[in-house]
Write a structure and sequence with these properties.
Low-confidence stretches: 324-330
Order of helices and strands: HHHHHEHEEHEEHEE
Mean pLDDT: 76
Number of strands: 7
Strand order of the largest sheet: 2-4-5-7-6
Radius of gyration: 38 Å
Helix content: 55-70%
Length: 370
């Protein structure tokens, strides 16, 4: 038993010395190619075995012939190990280079194309992650391009929308100043309407800028769906009467929500005004509030005739108006973008779909806790 322990001790000391030298070599060569590291690992394994074997052989006083035989056997094993390590290292290095080139392609604005051929499990996992990241980046690029295009269109449209009333205001003011206005009262009323329209436009721009900047401050209170719908219908009733549109709001579930009443009144007001303006005379705009597994769903259904399918995804984009007209009631295309921003600030979501004769805008809000 003592001889076995002594042999184990000598073998351990020899292998430990080889292992320490290998660890030092790996640290010094840690920035070198992978094939070098694999060769060092193979060398450590073979050297550890050789050192342990030779240490035990010397301790056992083997004959020179026996010692040569042992050394030759270990040397052959070392040669095979080195060759295998170098082949494995070159294979892994080649797959790593292919992966690096593929990653560089989508990093420079392209898309990631996974390199062909088999690779290790770790490289396969990395390839899948890079492919997923590439898909997310491409989606982000498309979204950024759409937002940039929307911003450019918005700037152009707002510039036009502001320039047109300003030109009219200047003409009317000059006519009043020169005493050339035959009906000064009509001119003054028109000036007031244009100023109010511009004030609404500037207010929408300010609200949208707060939403985009993340500085929209909410003051949530517990509100009933009845109150939300009732206040919205009361505010939109004068416009509906003026345009001959019937407002209906008799399907409302008693669902409490915690929202900023002022901001949600703006949401419902924007939806109703948009629906009334798009609905022909003698048409109907219906407002409902129903309980759902996600909370409260507020719906505004109009008689606009429907939205083209290719435009449904853009309805809530900034600047989208659904009409190339620049005169009222086309507006600046900010109302629905404000709706989405306010609803998302309440952890809700917006949606739109076509129904018979028109479209239905839906706002989903979380139900009040408790």
């Amino acid at each position: 038993m003592a001889d076995i322990l002594l042999i184990a001790l000598f073998a351990f000391l020899g292998a430990a010395a080889a292992g320490l030298l290998g660890a030092l070599a790996l640290r010094l060569l840690r920035h070198r190619p992978l094939v070098v590291s694999l060769t060092v690992v193979a060398a450590v394994a073979v050297t550890a075995m050789l050192a342990g074997t030779l240490t035990v052989a010397w301790a056992m006083f083997l004959s020179p012939h026996d010692l040569t035989v042992v050394t030759t056997v270990v040397a052959m094993a070392a040669s095979v190990s080195f060759a295998t390590a170098m082949l494995l290292g070159r294979w892994v290095a080649a797959r790593s280079r292919d992966l690096t080139l593929a990653a560089r392609s989508f990093g420079e604005g392209g898309t990631f194309a996974a390199p062909e051929g088999q690779a290790t499990a770790e490289l396969d996992a990395l390839t899948r992650e890079l492919a997923a990241t590439s898909a997310k980046l491409e989606s982000s690029r498309r979204r950024e391009r759409a937002l940039e295009s929307s911003r450019r269109e918005l700037v152009a449209w707002i510039s036009h929308d502001l320039r047109t009333p300003l030109t009219g205001l200047r003409a009317m003011s000059e006519a009043l100043e020169d005493g050339m206005a035959a009906d000064s009262g009509r001119y003054l009323r028109q000036i007031r309407r244009e100023v109010e329209r511009m004030n609404d436009m500037v207010g929408d721009l300010f609200e949208l800028s707060r939403i985009h900047a993340g500085s929209l401050t909410l003051t949530p209170t517990r509100v009933s769906a009845h109150d939300l719908v009732g206040d919205a219908l009361a505010g939109a009733d004068p416009l509906a009467r003026e345009r001959g549109v019937l407002l209906v709001g008799d399907q409302v579930d008693a669902v409490p929500v915690e929202v900023d009443s002022k901001e949600m009144s703006r949401v419902m007001g924007n939806l109703l005004i948009n629906a009334i303006r798009r609905t022909p005379s003698d048409g109907t705009v219906a407002v409902t509030a129903r309980r759902s597994p996600d909370g409260l769903v507020l719906s505004v259904t109009d008689g606009c005739g429907g939205i083209p399918e290719e435009d449904l995804a853009r309805v809530f984009d900034t600047g989208w108006r659904g009409s190339p007209a620049r005169t009222p009631p086309a507006g600046a295309g900010l109302g629905l973008a404000i709706v989405r921003g306010i609803v998302e600030a309440h952890s809700g979501r917006t949606a739109v779909r076509n129904v018979a004769g028109g479209c239905c805008f839906e706002v989903t809000l979380p139900a009040a806790s408790g």
